[in-house]
Predict the 3D structure of the following.
Amino acid sequence: MNLQYSEIMVRYGELSTKGKNRMRFINKLRRNIQDVLSIYPEVKVTADRDRCHVFLNGADYAPVAESLKQIFGIQAFNPVYRVEKDVAVLTEAVQAIMTDLYQEGLTFKVSSKRSDHQFELDSTQLNHTLGGAVFEVLPNIKAQMKKPDVNLKVEIREEAAYISHEEIRGAGGLPVGTAGKGMLMLSGGIDSPVAGYLSLKRGVDIEAVHFASPPYTSPGALKKAHDLTRKLTKFGGNIQFIEVPFTEIQEEIKEKAPEAYLMTLTRRFMMRITDRIRAKRDGRVIINGESLGQVASQTLESMQAINAVTSTPVIRPVVTMDKLEIIDLAEKIDTFSISIQPFEDCCTIFAPDRPKTNPKIKNVEQYEARLDVEGLVERAVAGIMVTEITPNEEADVVDELIDDLL
Ligand code: ATP
Ligand code: MG
């Protein structure tokens, strides 16, 4: 008997189980699963109150399972075989499955459930019949009711019978989008993609805001940011990528402000612009990859000076993590190797040798008075370019253009 998984049943994680929110959560999760699994065109996804169903329709089980393991909001899932509702067919299927799994000392039990009450055997009879069928082909196997190695679950429903024996742990967390939207300031570095991943985990729908300063920054740096964003889509689906033209601002700052304050001023502009974009696109918070003490811009004094341009909450998921802890996560989510590609981003190019680690707000404001802050911010915001990044690289037109330029 050639058995193939036909469906995967997905159990919800830490959903806000209360009342009417539940359906909203479930629908979000279903759409996220659909987005992530869009790379497997045969797969269909449906959801009800208790479970989400992923129908393989001939797609390979293993890669789909790998994708499911990454999606936030899934607690666990079970691959299931769908077979005809017939005792002889069930018997043959159960024997085939157990023969395949068998090794010496294996313990098992059969747990049947019958929602079709017309079916000829009730659940106790099914347990006996199917258990007996297993002993017929595997006389040395042991039945064990408490914590068996294999718990063979058999469910008789209206349309068919379902068998499953495997339970795979999901990523946990909350479905992306259920916590609202945040703007992730995404450089090409190691830290900000990790900050993005951690926000996704708690259900934040992120949009990636990336500052580019062509011709000082290369198409390679932009592609790197796109690729990092694509890596983040596997946790909850498509992500809007917002490229901000930053050249004019960096040239202005470089020309008019003292070297030691370049970094502080640059960061304040980034924060203002991100906040403006956030307001326009209905985001709630700003997220960045700052980590305390890592570099000059990341002292408490610097954070204070940079943060002073907005009252919007700024979430810093990696703020108290050591670099090595961040790198571990970057490796786990497969962004590390992209992050270390040698393309300079806008900050490294304009970075002063000795940035101020304790910038004074009074000075900052004095230097900014030399610039047309409002005009610069407005022009940058007016010039943004938005691309939807999907898990499927081919769906991404901008990327192809950049590849040609490289
Ligand atoms: P990362 O590894 O994320 O680049 P970093 O350790 O290099 O961080 P900084 O360069 O000081 O630190 O940047 C701090 C944060 O500012 C970044 O984590 C990111 O959130 C934001 N940022 C820096 N450069 C850019 C950029 N070009 N576009 C968008 N955000 C940026
Ligand atoms: Mg950086």
Observations:
- The chain has two domains: 7-171, 181-405.
